[in-house]
Specification:
Shape: globular
Helix content: 25-40%
Length: 244
């Protein structure tokens, strides 16, 4: 029988170090991994006005469908349009970049069948990684419900506790979040609920979302016009006016 010599302590330490290095390299690859679908849009300055005009046209199309009052209609929001508008967000809404968490840049939205994926590059000063959040959007009686179902750093899955705000409850009246916004309650972990009824500031028309679906490349909303309506002031708006 051939006997092999037992490895010495130095050899064992080298093998252990090599294994740890291999594991570290795999983790780095997983953290640095970037899917091919992540392609933040860059819009030449000469095209910025065209993109702004396109956004205005999309808003006008929604307004015209509400004013027609011809019964429920389907309104599409396309992934490619959203990403183009995101690319020039500062020109559309000055200060919009401040809406992003500190250190996050190059946001990108992906619509897959039944899933919304929000992606962005996070830089902590020592390097950048790709963070992504997967959400579902569905109807539950009189609410649209948005829920986080996955978090990733590169290709590495993260626990939901990685982001504290996911479980932070929200409770806002209709009109509190933006002019005409629906009432919003709950949290992203257990389900953020947006009331199906809202008010469109362009024309002052109320509407109700009857159904929503996420398909490859777009969101489909079935909308029911509810006619012109004056939006009432919220408690928060009344209190703010009183303090002034």
């Amino acid at each position: 029988m051939v006997r092999f010599p037992k490895p010495g302590k130095k050899a064992a330490a080298l093998v252990g170090a090599a294994c740890l290095l291999a594991i570290l390299l795999v983790l780095i690859v997983l953290l640095k991994w970037k899917p091919g679908v992540y392609r933040p849009v860059e819009i030449p300055r000469s095209e910025h006005q065209k993109m702004r005009n396109h956004l205005v046209a999309a808003e006008q199309a929604f307004t015209e469908n509400l004013r027609a009052d011809a019964g429920p209609f389907t309104y599409h929001i396309y992934q490619d349009d959203l990403n183009r508008w995101l690319a020039i967000r500062e020109e559309i809404y000055p200060g919009a970049s401040e809406w992003l968490p500190r250190g996050l840049s190059d946001p990108f939205i992906l619509f897959e069948d039944g899933l919304i994926v929000l992606m962005g590059r996070y830089n902590d000063g020592m390097g950048s990684v790709l963070l992504s959040m997967e959400l579902t959007l569905s109807m539950d009686r009189d609410d649209l419900v948005m829920r986080v179902v996955g978090l990733r750093c590169g290709a590495l899955g993260l626990p939901h506790s990685f982001i504290d705000d996911l479980s932070s409850p929200v409770d806002r009246e209709a009109g509190d979040t933006w002019p005409g916004s629906p009432a919003i309650s709950g949290d992203l972990e257990s389900g953020l609920r947006l009331n199906a009824e809202a008010w469109w500031i362009c024309g002052g028309i109320a509407y109700r979302v009857l159904d929503v679906s996420v398909v490859d490349g777009r969101l489909d909303f079935e909308i029911e016009p509810l006619g012109p309506r004056v939006q009432r002031r919220t408690k928060r708006q009344t209190a703010a006016s009183a303090s002034d």
